Amino acid sequence: MKPQISSSEKAIIFDSSSIINFTMNGLLTEFRELKRIFNGRFLVPKEVKEEIVDKPMQIKRFELEALKIKELFEEKILELPNAIGIDESKLSSKTIDLMKIANNTFFGRENPIHIIDSGETACLVLSTMLSEKGIKNIISVDERTIRLLSEKPENLSDIFRSKLHAQITAKKENFKPFSGFKFIRSAELIYIAYKNNLVKLKNGVVLDALLYALKFNGCSISDEEINEIKKLGKP
């Protein structure tokens, strides 16, 4: 029997970066509490699950973190898209197609620049498939590239030019499939947890400590943005 989908459902789609950040900072209790108050689904494409559970389980250095994340799936805190009737073979096929477009959009020294991998791309595809079903959704990702590709793709040319010290060209007709997505970072999620009294630490500087811990573990957020969030967090 196929899972029933309600048009009133909502979901957060997680890329590996934000889940790893919560895990590495010992914030999985707060993560579970966020799921409790969200009243929606926390979804992870299988391409992302491979990055955060299946492959790390084979590497001793990352095995413990992988076990902690695996437990989130066992508790159904995190779910695969088939939990709400998404055809995962179709999702994977569309992911391959979209990734080819992304990675043949920017060129330096006449060579295509690889900018996103299958996990991030699968999040975009899943977001589109959910939207087509009337399910409101947002993508949780801490890395900058995928957000810029969607929100300000022209800025990526400047970044690549600075990194590669080369002239960058772009196929601007490729920008369209990446527009219109909504994103949230682990920093905004932990702020929501903080405002809802889900954070166990009660020290007055805890919000500052949380935001910088997430920043230093890969969340792309500026000091100015952190200060803005801290202002919002004041009583």
Known CATH architecture: 3-Layer(aba) Sandwich
CATH topology: Rossmann fold
How many β-strand runs? Answer: 7
SS class: alpha/beta
Q: What does the largest sheet look like?
A: 4 strands, parallel
Query: For this structure, what is the CATH homologous superfamily?
Result: 5'-nuclease
Strand content bin: 5-15%
The best one-word shape is globular
CATH class categorisation: Alpha Beta
Rg from C-alpha positions? 18 Å
Q: How are the SSEs ordered, and which strands pair?
A:
Blueprint: E1 10-14, H1 16-24, H2 28-38, E2 41-43, H3 46-54, H4 63-74, H5 88-102, E3 106-108, E4 111-112, H6 118-132, E5 136-140, H7 144-151, H8 153-164, E6 168-170, E7 183-184, H9 186-195, H10 206-216, H11 223-232
Parallel strand pairs: 1-2, 1-5, 5-7
Antiparallel strand pairs: 3-4, 3-6
Helix pairs in contact: 2-9, 3-6, 5-6, 7-8, 9-10
What does this structure look like?
This protein is of the alpha/beta class and 235 residues long. It has one domain: Rossmann fold (3-Layer(aba) Sandwich), CATH 3.40.50. It is 52% helix and 10% strand. It is built from eleven helices and seven strands. Strands 2-1-5-7 form a four-stranded parallel β-sheet. Strand 3 and strand 4 form a beta hairpin. The chain is globular. The termini are far apart. The mean pLDDT is 94.
